[in-house]
Amino acid sequence: MLNGIKSTFSIKDMENFSGIKQHTIRIWEKRYNLLEPERTDCNIRFYDARNFEKLLNVSLLYHNGYKISKIARLSEEELIQKTDELGRQRFVDNSYHHYFKLAMLSFDVDLFNKTYQKLLALKPLSHIFLKILFPFLNKVGHLWQTQSIKPSHEHFVSYLILQKLQIAIAEAQKNIKPANKAYVLYLPEGETHELGLFYIQYALLEQGENCIYLGSNLSMECLQPVSENFAAIHFVSYCTIKLDDVDAYLKKFKKTYLHHPKHKLHFISPVKEMGNQFKNESITGYTSLNEFLETLN
Fold first, then answer.
1. Is the pTM of this model over 0.90?
2. Which of 156, 187, 240, 286 could form a disulfide with 268 if both were Cys (CB 3.0 to 4.6 A apart)?
């Protein structure tokens, strides 16, 4: 299954991908002969793709209640069979992480799509994105930061997830009627990570709200034309980086666009000092995507 990816993995890679600590991997090797590492001339462990995939399968069963002593007695064929059975018989979120991870590593669009279609048959889109795909992307970010994957892996899987979200958005837009109220979605200058904002668009459309999506890296001045076209506007901005001066940005935004009593700004940022500090009649700060989404229910 892992054709086309790098042929060797360090024990740190094994830990990062599987969630099994390095010392536990060593114990399992010694006690159960679970893996067959090779060694460099300096006696440093490394693993081939077969051992890597085996540990991913082992970790999936282990994290879902199987005892390592029983897992170790399985042949490689039985291990793969048990892993597939787990994915088919039980809706376990991390089992889907397992297959998305394999798809990412081997740039396998077909495996990604088949896994996604299985999810669609079992759970609503909100669960798929908020409970599975977004947490998976957080793990992908960690793998990239620890240099366990290349930027191409992250870009590949992020684009596939964005593609699925855009399909859902296009479907949800079919039933939206023109209105005097609109949600205007944008990312401020310097911000380019649109997935969270795209999901907000989908969630608002599902609520029947009129949405104007303006995209990323937008200066405040670019909002002027749209601000003149609706009687009531809820601006929504999602920021994953810390602006140089959040307070100054919000003060300028309020002065420029929120003099109309029906115009409001919802500003979402992981920066902890936001929250209640900026809550007033026209501006509401949120520290997470989920916190904002809860207000829609």
1. no
2. 286
